[in-house]
């Protein structure tokens, strides 16, 4: 009896490890559709819609590099000179004329439902643990539903229910939850061919409460580029203008 119980427990443990490995692989492949280069300069347009009608729009330039570092440069009239820096779990807002950076959270809104975390952080692998919850059909194609749990309390969303295509693991849509368990919004991912490969070029964010409101984050362009360490130093940024 003891041997049977031990064997069953061992098999369950191996099954759990195998699924964890599968999920890690799936998330890495899903991430590859959103972030094609580990170090890049990305031009981003954020637009809001009310009842399907255009409302507001803003432009941002996003610099990313390995190690969880991102810098958002505001490019819309009236906001030029503002910056948001993400370095690991730390987020800072830098304003022109201010001597010191201000700490903010990754849920700080930029426009509509687009937060700093939505634009500055672009990966699931490494930030979430998860399991395969079920197989179903999404928009007429076989898909997998993944239940993801944040590995750190500082992440924008503590729980994510992510649907990916079963064939190639491209992200389809995700339900995004706060630490309280409240569903904040749903993200839908739209893919086009860029540089000969399928890439997420547009993300639609819908508020869970204000369902008539939609925020669309569009990647206008992305190019690989290397950056100096100073661009990801909060004190340097507070004292210097950035020209790219």
UniProtKB/TrEMBL annotation:
Uncharacterized protein TP-0789 domain residues: 69-239
Signal peptide range: 1-20
Protein keywords: Lipoprotein, Signal
Pfam families associated with the record: LolA_like
The protein's name in its UniProt record: Outer membrane lipoprotein-sorting protein
Organism: Duganella fentianensis
